[in-house]
Amino acid sequence: MTRAVTIAAPRRALAAWVVAVLACTVIIARTEFTADMSAFLPKTPTPVQQILVQQLRDGVVSRLILIAIEGAAPDELAQTSKRFAAALRQQPDAFAAVNNGEEVTLNKDRELLFRNRYLLSPAVTTGRFSGAALRIALEEDLQLLGSPAGALLGKILPRDPTGEMLQLIAQFEGVARPEVRDGVWFARDGSRALLVVQTRAAGYDIDAQERALTFIRTAFAHVNETAASSGPALLFSGPGVFAVQSRARIKADALRFSLIATALVAALLSALYRSPRVLLLGLLPVASGALAGIAAVSLGFGSVHGITLGFGVTLIGEAVDYAIYLFTQITPDATPADSLARIWPTLRLGLLTSLCGFGAMLLSGFPGLAQLGLFSIAGLIAAVLVTRFVLPALLPPGFTVRAATGLAPRMTAIADSARVLRYPVILATLAALFFLGSQRGALWSDDLASLTPIAASERALDEQLRRDIGAPDVRHLVVVNAASADAALASSEKIAARLQTSVEQGSLEGFESAAVYLPAAATQRARQAAIPDPAVLRDSLREAQRGLPFRAGLFEPFLSDIEAARTQAPLTRASLDGTALALKVDSLLVKRNGTEAAAGAWTAMLPLRGVMDATVIARDVQSAPDSEGVLVDLKHESDALYQTYRHEVITYSLLGAVAILLLLLISLRSVRRVLVVMTPLAAAVIITFCLLVLGGNPLSIFHLVGLLLVVAVGSNYALFFERQAANDAERERTLVSLVFANLTTLIGFGLLAFSKVPLLHALGSTVGIGAVLSLAFSAVLIAQPRALTVQPA
Amino acid sequence: MISGSRRSVRHALWALMFATSALFAAEPTAWGIDQLMQELAQVKTAKGRFVERKTMAMLNAPLESSGTLVYTAPGRLEKYTRLPKPETLVLDKDKLSIEYKDRGQRRTLALQDYPVIWAFVESIRSTLAGDLATLNRFYRASLAGSEEQWRLSLQPVDAKTQTVVKEIHIGGNRSHVRTIEIIETEGDRSLMTITEDTQ
User: Is A514 buried (19+), middle (13-18) or exposed (0-12) by CB count in 10 A?
Assistant: First the structure.
């Protein structure tokens, strides 16, 4: 009876494992893999932050690609820019707008402004077209005709004697624009021709962004074919570009590091096991863990981020440890089940402490980090279950690790002599503590940018291109929420009136508003109402013209234009299609996603330039009647965001550390033993921290998470060291298993230190250093009494 | 292909220019546009009174205005109109500002946004500065007359400017500019006569 049960149990475990693997495979086959940058922005930001995050995901801002052409003489760059832009305009399915400063787009904009000047001009109010007002306007025109600007006015004067077009153009002046040379945009120093391209696809649609970039590259190569051999070079940047580049880099990193890690671990294990079958068995928990991890993330988050796959490399180094502990501990005279029973409590405790560490990541308000946490938790649990229930049944009978017997005495000798280093290690730790204590606050990066998976060089290029293109560094903006687009525009107008007084008083340089290009419907109707009946206007004009030298009938075009304006349908967003103004409006007036979208919630943004005193402007904005505008300081918001973030991560890391301590207290039932286990870990964390600071990089919250993982992972070593061995042979085997487990962990995390993705690099370098130090310090600091019991015969 | 053939044309032009300059190098340098420009470039400041008369199709009587002009080398030109209404125009580097004192209005234009106005003002400023390179960017220049009484004719290069300006004639003697005549494409014309202040 008992015998039947013991045989059936492994079979059931095997069957359960096969089913689980199949289930995971099915889930993974249906999984969507993303590289969405907003995974690295917080999950629960304020409404303002939500808008910004949404803008980064699919707003116009996310669709812009900044392009520069450099490396040739200005005239060649200008020629290339024109041909290149023409080639891109051939792809209307990919690009909604291609702007290189050429008149093509400019003319369309001007034409639209001119056609709708009476609805757009803020000067059109009651009385604007009275006889007296017209008289003043005509006298001014006469004066303007005498000046150099008269040549331009001349053409439109008969259609626009009150100068509405000039009014409109004046509104746009002062907005930073790139310099124009040879008819196209250039950087101020003339070294680069510039283009701005808007993709049809949203920034988060990485496949579409990648296609757009391919279009850009091929179009440029094609245009360049016809130019000189050493033609100009192409540079581009933008949110979509970042997403594509990051995904490619993460993909490459994940694949390369996984292959290298697998190869290294396999080489190491075949040296240890000397059996291909056991080697494969040893990798079984890893593969199972990886499957379980990806499936869990897919179920938990709906999609798997590329970075999570990259992080999977560490699982190779971690999950293989359990098999190493098991295989190395099997003596020739014991069954796998007996050996397992012996090490199981320690193994389980090690797993639980690791889970505490990754659990802290899971709880952080950071979708990217949470995925890594869930991935590791599911992966490690699966790996341990496979090690515990599946592997023993599959091991060849009489299996033992021979290398263990060979290496063990030497390792034991090293471990025993390691105790000599006790005081130097304690001294070094104290010195490191003192060093860290003496640092003045600059230990942690305060920049939200430290969290992005975008390389510093790419960010620098982006900033450079933005400066070249004259895109202002938007720091302050007024945000207005409303139930409809029109209501948002109406509110913008009220706020704009307030801001205009600030501009006149000199406390503000200028601002932008969607309502400038698309006034609220009511405003447009009011302007139409301010236009007199044709007969009245004709009389007023005749009156105004008396005594002035204007030719008779000169202003007939004006009379017909303004009558058309008086009766035309108001402008809508659709009227702007095909112009750069549409782009402007779409970037300043957005529909909010999420739950509020059903209610049709809209947001208008008014970016401010040259804010002298933010508090004064904030007060002005708040006092605008019937509108709920809020002045937002983006710098402040992003700083606050980062602070919240760091605070959260610190809290969860501390909770994770406390959980590990409690776990150890409960399991070890002795404060003294907990202290013994924690001392080498604390020393390892402190010295790792110190080494990272000495490395010169400002530390991000990823390093902090890494330090927690050092405790979570390193506790495995300390626990095995601290465990009272039954005899010397067992102690020697334990030591061998620890060294190999440590090496594989080092391979997994150490490889990530070479990743160009900041998050992976930070975690990899921190845990890599910390894991090695944890083992070394455990050997040095944990006094291990030789087993007193006599070896059984 | 396009730039290639253009390049070869440019090469040919260079070769031709080199050949002709070598041919005439031996001759004593005749008075020409280079000499005129050099002479004009020597002038550091100039001040004068102007009378401008504009004839326009839109108006049934010509417009007359008068005031003073002040030029400061290399790039600043101020035009103070007194009559019929006060108006101040200051051209400095790449900015043109217009001020109407009686209305309390002031506007500053970035010249690069208004290529035609830029071409307009540059015809006068570059001539005063003796800046042939800039002048050549906007116009094909030809010189007639003698050092004592010269006439510089400028024809716009840019197609857009051509739709507005047909020709500009600048007349003077030695390093003094005396008249500026602008003939617009659609027939409007203006003539500015400058009498230099004795300084």
Answer: buried
Token pair for A124: 């059109």
Inter-residue contact B87 to B103 (CB < 8 Å): no
- Give the end-to-end CA distance of chain A in Å, rounded to a whole number: 31
CB contact under 8 A, B165 and A151: yes
Interatomic CA distance for residues A258 and A525, integer angstroms: 65
Which one of A151, A157, A180 has the shortest CB-CB distance to B164? A151
Q: What is the pLDDT of residues B164-190, one digit of tens each?
A: 889 999 999 888 889 999 998 888 888
> Which tokens in the block code for residue A706?
């890494």
Mark yes or no for CB contact B59/A143 under 8 Å: no
Cα angle value A203/A361/A767 (rounded, 5°): 105
Q: Which residue has the tokens 């130097």?
A: A424
Contact A154 B56 (CB under 8 A): yes
Q: Summarize the confidence of residues A339-356 as an average pLDDT.
A: 86
Q: Which residues of A125-143 are buried (b: 16+ CB within 10 A; e: fewer)?
A: eeebbbbeebbebbebbbb
Q: Which residues of A fall within a CB distance of 8 Å from B61?
A: 549
Say which amino acid occupies A103.
E
In degrees rounded to 5, what are phi and psi of residue A562? -70, -30
Of A11-25, A229-243, A530-544, the one with minimum mean pLDDT is A229-243
Check whether A229 has a pLDDT greater than 60.
no
Q: Which amino acid is at A60?
A: V
Say if the Cβ atoms of B81 and A179 lie within 8 Å.
Answer: no
Contact across the interface for B116 and A151, Cβ inside 8 Å: yes
Please state which architecture CATH assigns to domain A2-30+242-438+670-781.
Up-down Bundle (1.20)
Q: pLDDT tens string for chain B (199 positions)? A: 344 444 455 555 555 444 444 444 444 457 788 888 888 888 888 889 999 998 988 888 888 889 999 989 888 999 999 888 888 989 988 888 888 877 777 777 778 777 788 888 888 898 888 888 888 888 998 988 888 899 999 999 888 888 888 999 999 988 888 999 999 888 888 899 998 764 4
d(CA B96, CA B115): 12
- Facing residue for B117 by CB, picked from A152, A155, A550: A152
pTM, to two decimals: 0.67
| 3-state secondary structure at position A506 | coil
pLDDT single digits (tens) A153-184: 767 888 998 888 888 877 766 566 677 777 88
Interface pTM (ipTM) of the complex?
0.75
Calpha distance B144→A386 (Å, rounded) = 99
3-class SS of residue A667: helix
Q: Please report how the helices A164-172 and A103-115 are oriented relative to each other, as an axis angle in degrees rounded to 10.
A: 130
Alpha helices in A44-122 (DSSP H): 47-58, 60-63, 74-89, 103-115, 117-120
Interface residue of B1, B2, B3 to substitute, partner A, most A CBs within 10 Å: B3
Q: Round to whole Å and give the CA distance between A102 and B2.
A: 20
Domains recognised in chain B with CATH numbers: 31-196 (2.50.20.10)
Indicate yes or no: CB of B63 within 8 angstroms of CB of A170: no
- Inter-chain residue contact A145 with B58, CB threshold 8 Å: yes
- Please report residues of A whose CB lies closer than 8 A to that of B165: 151
Helix (H) or strand (E) holding B173: strand B165-173
pLDDT of residue A560: 92
CB contact under 8 A, A145 and B54: yes
- First and final C-alpha spacing in chain B: 57
Identify whether the C-beta of residue A261 lies closer than 8 Å to the C-beta of residue A751: yes
- The partner residue sitting opposite A551, judged by closest CB among B58, B103, B107, is B58
pLDDT of A543-565, one tens digit each?
A: 888 888 888 888 999 999 999 99
Select the residue of B59, B120, B184 nearest A550 (Cβ to Cβ). Answer: B59
Residues in chain A: 793
